[in-house]
Specification:
67 residues; mainly alpha; Arc Repressor Mutant, subunit A; single chain
């Protein structure tokens, strides 16, 4: 799990204009960890943000992507 977070954090960061659906950098980080099979609790612990904040970002991702 820590290796995935480090890969996400060290990877090349595209500029804001390159993120799909106008996602923020943190929303992209959350989405990458969801795609890697992490639970909301694991994502919260990896990114050092609250579970409520993860849920907020997921709602934003769903709204922005129309899912």
């Amino acid at each position: 799990m820590a290796a995935e977070v480090m890969r996400v954090q060290r990877g090349r960061r595209p500029t804001l204009a390159e993120y799909p659906a106008d996602l923020s950098e943190l929303e992209v980080d959350v989405l990458r960890l969801v795609a890697a099979g992490r639970t909301n609790q694991q994502i919260s612990e990896c990114l050092f943000i609250s579970l409520n904040t993860i849920n907020f970002h997921l709602r934003n991702i769903f709204n922005k992507t129309g899912t």
